[in-house]
């Protein structure tokens, strides 16, 4: 048993996301887990998007431009579209049925 060997992190997979409403596409990272996502969304909702973007860049190799795009699509209120405030379906990444905007409902 070699429990002392540091566990190697799996190399991150780039994930491409695209929003139908604004036509933007960006790259996110498979390194993001639910815990990180929640932390980042909390910073946004507390009115501190700069800290959230820094966090995102500290834990992944997402570019500043991509981090901003991700940030822009995080819901301000859980379960509500960030663009038109319509009810979302409860998935963590979802498309709004009213405006087709991608939402990160973290
Ligand atoms: Zn969009
Ligand atoms: Zn919407």
Into how many domains do the coordinates divide? 1
Strand content: 15-25%
SSE succession? EEHHHEE
Please count the beta strands (DSSP E, at least 2 residues each).
4
- Our measurement of the CA-to-CA distance between the termini, rounded to an integer number of angstroms, reads 38 Å
Give me the secondary-structure category.
alpha+beta
Low-confidence stretches: none
Largest sheet: 2 strands, antiparallel
Distinct bound molecules? zinc ion
Please give the radius of gyration in angstroms.
15 Å
Placed side by side, the strands forming the largest sheet appear as 1-2
Nearest-integer average pLDDT: 89
- What's the overall geometry? globular
Helix content: 25-40%
How would you portray this structure in words?
By secondary structure, the protein is an alpha+beta fold. The chain has one domain (29-104). Helices cover 30% and strands 15% of the residues. The chain contains three helices and four strands; from the N terminus they run ββαααββ. The strands form two sheets. A two-stranded antiparallel sheet has the order 1-2. A two-stranded antiparallel ribbon has the order 3-4. A hairpin with a 6-residue loop joins β1 (14-18) and β2. α1 runs antiparallel to α2 and α2 crosses α3. The protein is globular. The model has no long low-confidence stretch (mean pLDDT 89). The structure holds zinc ion (ZN) (2 copies). Residues 81, 83-84, 86, 96, 98-99, 101 line the site of one zinc ion.
